[in-house]
Amino acid sequence: MHAALTGPVTMGLLPPSPEPGLDTNLVTPGPWGFVAIAFVAVAVILLVWDMLRRIRRGRYRAEVREELDAEAQAEAAMAATNVDDEDIDPDVDGTGEAPANDARPR
């Protein structure tokens, strides 16, 4: 039981020894590995840059669209409230009383 508990501790203290016969050129990525990783990193950076630009453009378009919609609603509200100098109630003059010369038959 004692060896089972001290085994992992002693394994962690010993420096790892490479297997004999392993060629370091076969297990390292080398210059082609660096080129591949650099290409992936540049591609990711360019994709993120393009995505941020598209998101920003979409946000600006949405803001402009909201402003135009608000202006259109304001104009529609003004058009709905304008009476264009039409006489809405011809029986009443500006004083709130009926006009003196009432030509309607009774």
Report on this structure.
With 106 residues, this protein is mainly α. The chain has a domain of 34 residues. The protein has three helices and no strands. It is elongated, with a radius of gyration of 42 Å. The protein starts with a helix and ends in a 25-residue tail after the last helix.
Biggest beta sheet attributes: none
Total DSSP E strands: 0
Shape: elongated
Terminus-to-terminus distance: 120 Å
Strand content: under 5%
Helix fraction, binned, reads: 55-70%
What is the helix tally?
3
Order of helices and strands: HHH
Structural class label: mainly alpha
The low-confidence parts are: none
Rg, please? Answer: 42 Å
Instruction: Compute the average pLDDT.
Output: 79
Keywords: Membrane, Transmembrane, Transmembrane helix
Region (Disordered): 71-106
Biased composition (Acidic residues): 83-94
Transmembrane segments: 32-52
Question: In summary, what is this structure?
Answer:
The chain has a domain at 48-81. The protein has three helices and no strands.
Strand and helix layout:
Blueprint: H1 2-13, H2 24-27, H3 30-81
Annotation keywords:
single chain; 0% strand; mainly alpha; 3 helices; 106 residues; transmembrane
